[in-house]
Amino acid sequence: MEEKVYQFDLLKAQNAKLLKSERIYRIICESSDYGYIYQNLGSDEVLTFGSFEKMFGLRLHSTSDFYEFTEKLNAEDRNMVLDTLFCEEKEKRFSSCECRSLDDHSWFRIVTRIEDSELAGCECDKIITIVNITREKAQNSELLYMAYYDTTTGIYNRNYFVSLLTGMLQNAEKDGCKVSLLMIDIDDFKKINDVRGIIIGDELLQQIGSYLKGLMVKDKLICCHINNDIFCVAIYDPSGAYSVENFYKGLRERFDEPFVMSTGVEIRTTASVGVAEYPDSGSSALDLINCADIVVYKCKKNGKNNLQYFKAPILDDFLRNVDIENKLKAAVFENNFVMHFQPQYYSCNRQLRGFEALIRWKDDTGKMIPPSVFIPIAEKNGLIVSIGHFVVEESLRQYKKWSSFYGKNFKMSINISALQYKRDDFVESVMELIEQYDIDPSGIELEITESILIDDFDVVTEKLTRIRNFGVSISLDDFGTGYSSLSYLKKFPIDTLKVDKSFIDTLLDDASTRIITESILSMSHAMGFETVAEGVENERQFNYLASAGCDVIQGFYLGKPLSPDKVDDLLSDL
Ligand code: C2E
Ligand code: MG
Ligand code: MG
Q1: Whose Cα sits closest to atom 46 in ligand 1?
Q2: φ/ψ (deg, to 5) at 437
Q3: Contacts of 375 (CB under 8 A, 6+ apart)
């Protein structure tokens, strides 16, 4: 009796244990995001667990229900899914497929797994797991998209374009045909971005991108967004139906119309296009892109809104500049510059007014490279900042030496490049150096050009005012070559205006130049500016300018730029 009671208690305990573990498994299973189908391979009966019912709105009871289940799926995927569900090949153990829901909005992965039964003599168990993989699929297609397309414009990205262009070049090599690579750079895009904001800037790029997308013809005309405001187009068409000329004509027509933004704002812009062709300009995709890039830069320099083909001399020019650029870097490092000083004289009495400091670069072969060659390169690559610092310091050092030694009153005019001027610390660094050399600031004049005046008005004037309040005067160099609006000038705090050499050159032969020069001189005086004429080469020019009221004359007629030794001679003779 006692034995029976004991066995009953044992059974009860085992049952409770079983119930407990069954409950745990059920909770885990039911809270799973997966759907499960269980089938014992010896029978037809199936059971569904987990999220299966939630996913498909039905339960399965036998293998014949598999057909009903597949009706919840995309018709194209049904046979594949049935093969997976009915898979009973034990040696395979795993079988899987991916399928779409009936409405195509969701993706599922179905995995069939066959497990050996733990109980001897029993058939194996089949477990089918169904996972919703919609998000994973979306991420994959997003990654795939990102691998081929540019996210801003929706057209091909650079990498994919390069691989398509490489394919085109291989075909062109076989067929003995040409491939044209066009690089399109939107003119003044930075200004659009700055003035209208980057959202509008991006929308403009999108619109240009969709215009280009509309022109694409598989294997013949392909487009991509390289970066920023640069697009590339490759044309390969042995039949000649698609040509650079036709493309450019269409592009000009499109750009003649404004681009209308979603806000209603209309943007008018132009584009500079550089063309490099296989096989003349290069044999690889990257060669062509590089050559087109060089020629686009040239287009921009030639006034933008045009198209230019790459030609060999452009490359020579470019390589020469690269060579100069490399040598210039070394020159900055080794400080291979010297300053020369060109005298300026008052026209009324031919007394010395001062000197303009002009930089000279002696390259490693001893050749003197003129500033007109290297200053633009230094401005482009930023070296002008170090060069400019040298110019200011060396000119101040010489000025201090000469003014203390000879006890004479004269001015030192120092050329300042726009990039140098734009630096936040520019004004402070000049004031510090002037103080460091213990110089009277009224002896120093900074020559700026109009290129800085059309930048941010407030920042420019604030800096000019600070420099002038410190006692340094400001001269506007090369007047007449740039913006040249006298009414605009009224707003800027400057002291002196230098009439550009190009006026002086034609002054005596051309009546209209005379009229312009005279009106510049009289209006400058009316506004209180001192006037300087530069590039005066002969007595006739001198006499004419003196009688027209130009205050100061600078030029080869009265004195060429001098080395420091020669300045010593000049000052000691005074
Ligand atoms: P700029 O500031 O207008 O300087 C006047 C240029 O005209 C100088 O050329 C000078 O040598 C030249 N010149 C003066 N009188 C005559 C003349 O009668 N006939 C002829 N044919 N030329 C004359 P340079 O020294 O070759 O300088 C050219 C330009 O390079 C300068 O034009 C200036 O824009 C820039 N530059 C020169 N030195 C510096 C510098 O230290 N810093 C910066 N940022 N730019 C400089
Ligand atoms: Mg100058
Ligand atoms: Mg000048």
Answers
A1: 415
A2: -90, 5
A3: 359, 384, 387, 417
Pocket probe for ligand 1: among 373, 375, 392, the residue whose CB has the most ligand atoms within 8 Å is 375
Query: What CA–CA distance (Å, rounded) separates 282 from 277?
Result: 7
CB within 8 Å of 565: residues ≥ 6 apart: none
Instruction: Check if the beta carbon of residue 178 is closer than 8 Å to that of residue 277.
Output: yes
Helical packing angle, 426-436 and 384-406, nearest 10°? 30
Q: How far apart are CA 154 and CA 170, in angstroms?
A: 26
Which has the closest alpha carbon to 525: 501, 500, 551? 551
Q: Are 226 and 232 in contact (CB under 8 A)?
A: yes
Ligand nearest to C-alpha 478 = 3
Ligand 1 centre and the CA of 368: distance in Å?
14
Record the pTM.
0.57
**Which pLDDT tens digit goes with each residue over 385-435?**
999 999 999 999 999 999 999 988 999 999 999 889 988 899 999 999 999
And the tokens for 178?
């040409």
**DSSP summary character for residue 534:** E
> Checking DSSP bridges between strand 156-157 and strand 221-227, what pairing results, if any?
parallel
SS3 466: helix
Residue with CA nearest ligand 1 atom 12: 535
3-state DSSP call for residue 118?
Answer: coil
